[in-house]
Amino acid sequence: MAVLVGTLFVVPLLLMVWMSVNHWPLLGASAPNGVANYSALGDPLFLRAVWFTAKYTVVTTVVLGLIAFGLALLVQRNRRGVGAVRTVLFLPSAVGLASTSLLFYGLFTTDSSPLNGLVQAIGLGRVDWLGSTGTALGSTVAMITWRFAGFYMLILMTGLQSIDPVLYEAARIDGAGRWQTLWRVTLPLLRPTLALAMVLSLTGSLLAFDQFFILTGGRHDTATVVIDIYREAFLSQDLGRAAAVSVATLAVLIVVNVAQLRLIRREGR
Amino acid sequence: MKTRGFYLTGAALAVLFLLPMVWTLYASVHGREAAGGGDGWGLSNYQRLLDYGSGLSTYLVNTVVVAVVAVSVTVLTTTLGGYAMVRLPFRGRNALFLVTLAVLMVPYTTILVPLYILLGWIGLQNSLVGLGLVLAVLQLPFGLFMMRNSFEALPAELEEAALVDGCTITGALRRVLLRGVLPGIVTVALFSFLASWNEFVAPLIFLTDGAKFTLPVALFNLQSGSLGSVDFGALQAGVVVSALPCVAVFLVLQRYYVRGFTSGALKG
């Protein structure tokens, strides 16, 4: 195991830093290059990818968080038939993200898709689901919600179920209404779980690749940071610049994660 | 009234969540987009998929090879590793655990480029085994957590009794302890299988020979129309073929799946 982790994880990590300060074409010899590769961070294409990724991350995290929380509230109580509902909502989590993207590519682009049928039935014209930055973002967020809502629902549900029922009882006796109970009891106690879900969602969205690579191919300004890394490496064939972007991305992610872990710990107290 | 509200909402959501899958299943056996075909039912989409590129069977076998390598390496190393973490005090134990944790903190998409170079150096680029090993490493942190917890949950007396009865350490591990940690092993194997079966970026980058593509990459090529226009019928059949094993495995092993999620040690 040590050998595996060493070879396929630690060495690449060091190699990445080394590559980032070398001119490193896909084919041919490499040569020291100083910090020139880091000019990739000022590239307008890269900056646009950063902006789009940030936008996508915020929208996904908010939408997914709200829907998953609603679902968790719906299925948290054990009653007849709730198992079946949980299973169905959770089922998409078993399907790979690439398969999901290909599935929805069919839904978004074919004329025979029920989605387009529905839109035409209610009298709207043809919608080009992936044809502009806005629609592509919305369509992708809808798809991601379908794929991940059950996943986050389960995490939040576990958090909800670990709250002591006595506290709800006490709130009821004190005359708290439904909303008050939600704001004063449920949400504060659920904060560590909510924070965990947020860390997962933020990291996942910041590194988004499959969904946009497959649905739009990065067209209409929907290239993400990882798509930009892919382009630098395998289309521009400049691995040094790709490594520089990777190093920067990793640094940002570590800062974000450490900050969030701190937050969780403080809230957990 | 409240109960009825739950059932109405639950049913509506269930339909909404099942609809995309049902539609794909339907579209995959509906021959409308077949060349020269009528508006009928049939398996023509699947037939064209069988002959696509290097053939569906090649891609399926490739995907299975990668999954078998990833799952077996993950299960073997995390079972032994989990046992060692709990029972064997050895030097560098904590350091090793920390490095494994680091794998969790560093998203692998950021190290794909150097990995690509490295695999070239050690002769594992464009290799299904190499890809399987990379995917195994990604599963190690979760697996190690799972197996460490599983071994911790077993009473130490169990092993001691086996040793007193004349078993060697490996004998005790094999005959007595394995049964105890089996649920953990199934969970690790399940997650490792789903992750490697569905992986897209790593095979996209590491596999350059078309005959070595895994199913997701082959389907992506079908969709991006690298061999002419997009064949939507075959694409939908492909989605069914790639998603079906996952859905089936999930339905059978649901219990373990939920266990893995709720153990709280999952990476996103």
TrEMBL record, chain B:
It holds the Pfam family BPD_transp_1. Coiled coil: none annotated. The keyword Cell membrane applies. It is a multi-pass membrane protein. It is found in: Cell membrane. The keyword NAD does not apply. It comes from the Bacteria. Gene3D superfamilies: MetI-like. The chain crosses the membrane at residues 59-83, 95-122, 128-147, 176-197, 232-253. Its main location: membrane. InterPro entries: MetI-like, MetI-like_sf. CDD domains: TM_PBP2. Residues 60-253 form the ABC transmembrane type-1 domain. Keywords: Cell membrane, Membrane, Transmembrane, Transmembrane helix, Transport. Belongs to the binding-protein-dependent transport system permease family. This is Carbohydrate ABC transporter permease. It comes from Kutzneria chonburiensis.
